[in-house]
Design brief:
This is S-adenosylmethionine-dependent methyltransferase. InterPro entries: MeTrfase_7 (IPR005299), SAM-dependent_MTases_sf (IPR029063). GO terms for molecular function: methyltransferase activity. Pfam families: Methyltransf_7 (PF03492). The chain has 263 residues and is an alpha+beta fold. The protein has a single domain, classed as Rossmann fold, CATH 3.40.50. It is 40% helix and 16% strand. The protein contains eight helices and six strands; from the N terminus they run E-E-E-H-E-H-H-H-E-H-H-H-H-E. The strands form two sheets. It has a four-stranded mixed β-sheet with strand order 3-4-6-5. Strands 1-2 form a two-stranded antiparallel sheet. Helix 1 packs across helix 4 and helix 5 packs across helix 6. The longest helix has 25 residues.
């Protein structure tokens, strides 16, 4: 659909206005019943925060020496899942108030196929490997081990089934379409049937998304060393890495005409 044309000065005439709205999508961003269409792409894998119990030394979910959950105990995985459930319910609740009845919402998100054990989750395996690079750096005295202990990446690799259950539990939307998307380039580089990983493409993809978080936590000076060692580690572990499971999902939701759950 064409939504813009050029005027005589070569400036685009748009039949819409662009606006930036500050705030987190885990809370309300827009007025009630003001949106007809919402598109949220590659973002709801980010949790609102890492589960707090992962940083509590006396909790069974204390995630020592790790930054994610692929090789962690069940308590850690349970804490991530609980955070995801809380967040996704808040996301759906907020959007249900903002979207008009009959309005649509597209969600595109990376995650894992239904029934995947956390140890086989490619999103988590890739973060786990990055965590092991940080632990190597801690052993060499480049970063402090305590800094690694206190970093837990607030990302959860949900399955399509988990999203479906969240939508049904929320009750405000019907699922019109739910399907798997073709792999993106970085996914393809890992699990698209190639015999070799495009490590550089994968590391660039990860660095683009995570650099800010690592910079805030450890400082800028470690970034080049960290991602160089990550590249080597992926190359050394390529066969394990290629066994990881990942899926990109496309979901089209429709705001129901009425719901008993909206407070
Ligand atoms: C991987 S980028 C995706 C960017 C773009 N939507 C796309 O598909 O290319 C993830 C985006 O989600 C945003 N994000 C993560 N958590 C968020 C939150 N709680 N509220 C609003 N935006 C959030 C990040 O700031 C980032 O811009």
């Amino acid at each position: 659909m064409a939504v813009s044309s050029m005027n005589e000065n070569g400036i685009k005439n748009r039949n819409y206005y662009a606006a930036g709205v500050p705030g987190s999508f885990y809370g309300r961003l827009f007025p009630e019943a003001s949106l007809r269409f919402v598109h949220c792409s590659y973002a709801i894998q980010w949790l609102s925060e890492a589960p707090k119990e992962l940083m509590n030394k006396s909790s069974p979910a204390w995630n020592k020496s790790r930054i994610h959950y692929a090789n962690s105990g069940d308590e850690v995985v349970r804490a991530y899942k609980a955070q995801y459930h809380k967040d996704i319910e808040q996301f759906l609740h907020a959007r249900a108030q903002e979207i008009v009845c009959g309005g649509l919402m597209v969600l595109i998100f990376p995650g894992v196929p239904n029934g995947t054990h956390h140890s086989q989750s490619l999103p988590s395996m890739s973060l786990e490997l990055l965590g092991s690079c940080l632990m190597d750096m801690a052993r060499k005295g480049i970063v402090s081990e305590e800094k690694v202990d206190t970093l837990n990446i607030p990302i959860y690799g949900m399955s399509p089934q988990e999203l479906k259950e969240a939508v049904e539990g929320n009750g405000s939307f019907s699922i019109e379409i739910m399907e798997e998307l073709p792999p993106t380039i970085p996914d393809h580089a890992v699990s698209g049937g190639q015999s070799k990983i495009d490590t550089q493409a994968f590391v660039c993809h990860m660095r683009a998304g995570l650099e800010g978080l690592f910079k805030n936590h450890f400082g800028e000076r470690i970034l080049d060393v960290l991602f160089e060692s990550y590249k080597s580690k992926i190359e050394e572990n390529s066969s394990i890495f290629m066994s990881g499971k990942a899926v990109n999902s496309f979901v089209l939701l429709k705001r129901k005409l009425s719901t008993s759950k909206l407070a």
